[in-house]
## 1
Amino acid sequence: MGNMEKLSRALDAEAAHEAELDLEEMQNAALAGEDHDDVGMEDEVEGEEDGEPFRLPTAEEREEEKKGVSDVHVVQRRMRHCVRVLRNFKKLAEKDRSRSEYVEQLLADIASYYGYNDFLVNKLFQLFPVAEAIEFFEANEVSRPVTIRTNTVKTRRRDLAQVLINRGVNLEPIGKWTNVGLQVFESSVPIGATPEYLAGHYMLQAASSFLPVIALAPQLNERVLDMASAPGGKTTHIAALLRNTGHVFANDANKARTKSLAANIHRMGCKNVTVCSYDGREFPKVMGGFDRVLLDAPCSGTGVISKDSSVKINKSEHDFQLLSHLQKQLILCAIDSTSPESKSGGYLVYSTCSVTVDENEAVVDYALRKRPNVKLVDTGLEFGREGFTKYRGKIFNPSLRLTRRFYPHVHNMDGFFVAKFKVQKRSKVQTGGKIAAEPDVELPATEEDVAFDSEEDRPFIEEGKRRQMKAKGLRVPPRHKSAGTKGS
Ligand SMILES: C[S@@+](CC[C@H](N)C(=O)[O-])C[C@H]1O[C@@H](n2cnc3c(N)ncnc32)[C@H](O)[C@@H]1O
């Protein structure tokens, strides 16, 4: 095949892939009730509130605006207008202006108004229908409620609430889904320094952090691994659910962080916990055969932007690739550390405080493909949105709908993701395309089993590089093979 022909095929493939993404975006918009002829929209001629009709700036005007300081009111008004147009494009868009021009303007305005880098705005925006995306960015500007978890090793929620009310704390149970959580509305005393806090009667803990442990549902006398545990909010919750029976191994690769972990374990009166500091990727060689494993993975923190706004500007595409790579390595090790022989368990919970698909569904889907002996099961959580089963051209295992997503703008809690796996015996192995019966014993995880297959990620890394080049206006080389499709 000649070079020209190769190039032309590559360009065709790229165009087809981009058209596919556009179509998916339009379908999602339609599903979300967008781009419809909204009844009643006519009387909301946004942008004409001061008599001047709204006009999308030209490329030159945008360049000019970038040189100076943007008027926040102009930006606000333009965001509102772009959202409205994108929701009802056929009717409200200026002639000769494309959907992507409105999207581009909106993304630039969100980035400048809320202070994000362009890369992250784009990444987060894609997760939602247009109007909802604004709600998400807006929610990241507001603090979440202060919540505490009663330490049932030492007290009962009713008793704790009474003592704190007597100290001038205004509080209420968080919701029906937890019988240990309290929401603090106001307090005349510092809630992190009361005698009850120091005595370990409660943990200051975000409501969303309860969810992975509720999903893990540890049973009395079990042996549990908390693979990335510092500073121990979830470890001490697990220990309390075990009522100080069984054993929890609280691991964290960061030795410095194990100090606060150990301090919390002591304060909360947990007697069934051992602290250790290994890279999670060394498991199960260090220890294995756990009844349950929690992998609350290191992540980008895009679910907790209201707590740490540095995320808005300090994360690049490369960071997400590295994190996703680490998460994939860790999840395989977590699976291999879970005992399929466990009488009461054999479960793994994977969670992150991030909302990106690369760190959540893509990691879980990868684990399902690499470990045929695991399956997703219901998290047992009463609320939360279903995980994505397809996303921007990627198709995930349909069982991904069993995973749960939590959002600040929907659930008024930090953004979180929870997936629960059941680990089964590897009773059958694939040999030359045939299924061969294996003795009824668990195969030990071999070096190869635990190793990460970086070939798997190559298309994404390439795709990422291409996008970065494109964004910088550089010439993009043709794709080697179609990236971003099933089997990624
Ligand atoms: C989300 S935080 C864990 C929060 C904790 N589960 C809690 O509830 O308090 C992720 C933790 O992963 C640890 N970590 C990062 N890389 C790791 C690795 N390779 N193995 C084990 N832990 C790791 C970090 O030090 C960090 O403490």
Note: The longest strand covers residues 416-423.
## 2
Amino acid sequence: MSAIQVKNLTKTFGDFVAVDNISFEVANGEFFGLLGPNGAGKTTIIRMIVGLLTPNDGSILIQGLDIIKDVISAKMKLSTVPETGNVYTDLSARENIQLAGKFYGLSKKEIAEKSDELLNELGLFDRRDDPVINFSKGMRQRVSIACAVINEPDILILDEPTEGLDVQSRRLLINKMKQMNENGTTVILTTHNIEEANQLCERVCIINKGKIAAIDRPETLTTTFDKTQSIEISFNRSVTQDFFEPVSVYRIENYGDKWRLYTSSPDRTIKHLSKIAENQDLEIVSLRTLGPSLEEAFVSLTEVEK
Ligand SMILES: Nc1ncnc2c1ncn2[C@@H]1O[C@H](COP(=O)(O)OP(=O)(O)OP(=O)(O)O)[C@@H](O)[C@H]1O
């Protein structure tokens, strides 16, 4: 039985179709990512999966339980960290986590042990008794994830959990998601951070305009949908775009002192560039070839659908 089974799901707001007849499954224990541009429909899909929005059509099973018909039992299988966070700002970090423990029916002993463990693990122990209203966005998000995992849920669903966080908070959150997944929790994540999805997710589903543009392992998406190769080069003196005129490339981009040249033959392009540089008495300071990337695959998939 799958952790999540979404079948022919549709959601409209007035005449606007936000989610358009989509179907996918997430296996138990999988780390699954939902990627897509702004307004693609990711949050709407998540809100339907966690039972906060009712679909116009289609079904959602959470470990075989219908989120509409068996809402309570289905909801007990999953914990969620919504885009906006869901902590009580007038309570302290510890009180928030303990309240979540009570909600899930844990014993007093379990709640005391687990909340201290989570406060420590997420770098909040020293601030455990401060009201959350005084916390930064990253700290609130850490409280939010602690509340979501206190009952060691079968399924953890996070909507853009790392958006706008500093490196430390991001790392703590990522480590917690990884650890949960290693211990058997199914993790479903929406993100704009393609590199993050690439590193964490076993499969990603790219959503565009309410439809599934592609769904596969990140490596497969990368090699299937991005054939581009490029060279990144810099010289000891600055050059203008005219410098690259004799070289056969199909796109040129400039980042600070570096130039990115998209080419079907990196080897030929590098040889040609070396010759031109030598003729002009220029030294190559850095040079690297770049293969296909998930980011390019994402861009081409979400552009094609426009
Ligand atoms: N309650 C609502 N009423 C009307 N339209 C809505 C509502 N909720 C979402 N939408 C619309 O549905 C579309 C999908 O929104 P959604 O929030 O699911 O996108 P998203 O992929 O999560 O975007 P983002 O990455 O920006 O968070 C958007 O065009 C949005 O304006």
Note: The radius of gyration is 24 Å.
